[in-house]
Amino acid sequence: MKVLTVCLGNICRSPLAEGILRDKAHSMGLEWEVDSAGTSSWHIDEAPDPRSRQVASKYHIDISRQRARQFKPSDFDLFDQILVMDQSNYKDVVAQASSEDDKDKVELILNYLEPGKNKGVPDPYWDDNGFEQVFQLLDKASDAFIKRHQQ
């Protein structure tokens, strides 16, 4: 399984999702590849936000070596699942799809917790206190994702 997590800048939410999902898959012996990207080019080659690194570290997950990159249409060929953080990310990613098969790979990550609700992971960039909440949401969504796809 190859999974890509996507948010806007690839410095807050998607790096956390990548780190959490990779850590859980590895601890379960799953040979999954996990990466992350952003729909914007604002932070290309930057490390995750220090607040994301801090909350990940609190749970013994190291995301410090990750570097932001922008989502590109070729990602549809490289990944089996593309997990987006919110409706805006969903629209931006799906707009780059060249087929229905590509579109079918894209899902809102929180739909694994509440199917069909289409809820977004809040962007914590402007809220120092939001990083813990985002971590907890992504942790639960990652558990649900793995449970559904570990076969």
Provide a quick synopsis of the model.
By secondary structure, this protein is an alpha/beta fold. The protein is 40% helix and 13% strand.
3D structure, described in words:
The chain has 151 residues and is an alpha/beta fold. The protein has a single domain, classed as Rossmann fold, CATH 3.40.50.2300. It is built from six helices and four strands; from the N terminus they run E-H-E-H-H-E-H-H-E-H. The protein has a four-stranded parallel β-sheet with strand order 2-1-3-4, with helices on both faces. Helix 1 links the parallel strand 1 and strand 2. Helix 1 packs across helix 6. It starts with a strand and ends with a helix. 41% of the residues are buried. The model has no long low-confidence stretch (mean pLDDT 96).
